[in-house]
Amino acid sequence: MGTIKTAIPAVSPLTGEPMKRADAERLAGVLKALADPARLRLLSLIQSAPEREASVSDLTTPLGLSQPTVSHHLRILTEAGLLERDKRGVWAYYRLMPSTIAVIADLLTPPRKRATRRTR
């Protein structure tokens, strides 16, 4: 999977408007990154961690996965724009990109529900 840090499309597949092929491919890449249970657990663990960030060593035991496997999943989530990575000395810390998560949620919410959700 290539780097998907390019902008997520603004057109939802639920609006009734046809998506451009490149937009559909970008959105599918992000959704593919989210489609793995281990990756969803990683996002949850990072979001619930103190300071809302975690290193690979913080995540291996709770997931029951090896360091290389956790690093692989973190790389995919980072390339998809769902996490940001902050290198500090020999350690890298990962944190969620709430703006990306919000865009995806908005794209997958039918337009009528989106209008209702915003007015509350």
Automatic annotation (TrEMBL):
CDD domains: HTH_ARSR. InterPro entries: ArsR-like_HTH (IPR011991), HTH_ArsR_DNA-bd_dom (IPR001845), HTH_MetalResp_TranReg (IPR051081), WH-like_DNA-bd_sf (IPR036388), WH_DNA-bd_sf (IPR036390). Residues 19-116 form the HTH arsR-type domain. Pfam families: HTH_5. It comes from the Bacteria. Keywords: DNA-binding, Transcription, Transcription regulation. PANTHER family: ARSENICAL RESISTANCE OPERON REPRESSOR, TRANSCRIPTIONAL REGULATOR, ARSR FAMILY. This is Transcriptional regulator, ArsR family protein.
